[in-house]
Amino acid sequence: MPTTIFVALLFFFGIAVGSFTNVLIDRYKPEKSLFSLKRLRGRSHCDSCGRTLSAIELIPIASFIFLRGKCRECKSRLSFQYPLVEVVTGAIFAGVPLFLNSFYNISGGRFFLFAAEWWYYALAAFWVIVCLGLLIVFVIDLKHYIVPDELNLFFIIVGILIISILWNFRDSVFPFRESFLKNYVLVFSPFLGLLANRILGFAAGGLFFLILFFASRGRGMGMGDVKLAFALGLLFGWPDVGLSIIISFILGGVFSLALFIAGAKTMKDRVPFAPFLVTGIAATFFFGHALIGWYFSLFGM
């Protein structure tokens, strides 16, 4: 199967998964479990008039376009969250395997011909799931100012599984592919070992946020952000989590300043931080090596 067709199929499958992801996000209640099967049962309905949606209104992306972003019954506007989450989920399902195919330098399109080693596919599946979890964190924190504990635990479990694969097949992984910064790990880390850098990432990322939490008395940083930093530190390791934190603070500072200048927020208003941390992680995952290379090029290095 040609790579283009396979990637397209992954994208459309991801869009379908994105529709379910929207259900998971919409029905989340901070006081209840994110993965409650009881809460996930039942047909989807309009949040305004309560009308049960028909099958044709549940087609990902197409139904939003067909209905022009409005409920067919009460004409109330539908949130752009629905098509955006579906498109981003499709991009995750297609983009992550495509990126990893290049990152691990799998020649001849063997990855998409199912001719690569099994653990490549396991890593790709785990990273797709991680990115999907990060998307859920992004949206839920925007809506509820909370990062569900279930997702932090989920990231730790998947992180341990990814570390296990990389450790058991470390002789097969190309040099420096245990970090998304590749060879720049030599510059920013005192360790070369996989486990040492994962432990350092867990400690550095989590403790940094924990200090901020106590220093601001919980106003500048929530405990959910602290737990997320610990989990992502283990999942991505050092120095990846360090770069992610730097990017997240730059983005968070610029965005918050813009809101303050525009009068949309005051100094007393809360701004959810997890979306910025997720964006920093995504930037490091896909562009970390290129970003560090660009930074060094500014100094002629």
UniProtKB/TrEMBL annotation:
Alphabetized InterPro entries for the sequence: Prepilin_IV_endopep_pep, Prepilin_pept_A24_N, Prepilin_peptidase/N-MTase
Keyword Cell membrane found: yes
Protein name per its UniProtKB record: Prepilin peptidase
Membrane disposition: Multi-pass membrane protein
Gene3D superfamilies hit by this protein: 1.20.120.1220
Residues spanning the membrane: 6-25, 84-106, 118-139, 151-169, 189-215, 222-239, 276-296
Position of the signal peptide: none
PANTHER family for the chain: PREPILIN LEADER PEPTIDASE_N-METHYLTRANSFERASE-RELATED, TYPE 4 PREPILIN-LIKE PROTEINS LEADER PEPTIDE-PROCESSING ENZYME
Domain Prepilin peptidase A24 N-terminal, chain residue ranges per copy: 13-96
GO terms for biological process, alphabetical: signal peptide processing
Coiled coil: none
A GO-annotated cellular component: plasma membrane
One annotated GO molecular function: aspartic-type endopeptidase activity
Statement: the UniProt record of this protein carries the keyword Cell inner membrane: no
UniProt keyword terms in alphabetical order: Cell membrane, Membrane, Transmembrane, Transmembrane helix
Family (UniProt): Belongs to the peptidase A24 family.
Domain named Prepilin type IV endopeptidase peptidase: residues: 129-257
Localization annotation: Cell membrane
